[in-house]
């Protein structure tokens, strides 16, 4: 991972899932990031195709990444394969869910 990709990952750690108070990175929703020139590309999934927070998360991702130095454009690809499942949760994400009494 190069420095610009690391910066994008760290920025996305500040974007929270509106249904669970944790980052979309800890939720395992981000499949990949890349930066080419002034364009950031993000591959993201959701826990379900009918996720009611989809638009909010996409808006938050775009807004956050546009604050990164050198990023003037954000392209987001929604990925459904492989589908999200609980194995995508980070260790911190698992801890947080368990703390709130949610089985993982």
Structural class: alpha+beta
What would CATH call the homologous superfamily? Fe-S cluster assembly (FSCA)
Strand count, sense and closure of the main sheet?
3 strands, mixed
Strand proportion:
15-25%
- Radius of gyration, Cα only, in angstroms? 14 Å
- The CATH topology assignment is GMP Synthetase, Chain A, domain 3
Whole-number average pLDDT?
93
Count of runs of 4 or more consecutive helical residues:
3
Strand order, main sheet: write it out. Answer: 1-2-3
Low-pLDDT stretches = none
Short description:
With 104 residues, the chain is an alpha+beta fold.
What does this protein look like?
This protein has 104 residues and is an alpha+beta fold. It has one domain (3-99): GMP Synthetase, Chain A, domain 3. The chain contains 3 helices and 3 strands; from the N terminus they run H-E-E-H-E-H. It has helices at residues 3-12, 54-65, 91-99, and strands at residues 30-36, 39-44, 73-78. A 3-stranded mixed β-sheet has the order 1-2-3, with helices on one face. Strand 1 (30-36) and strand 2 (39-44) form a beta hairpin.
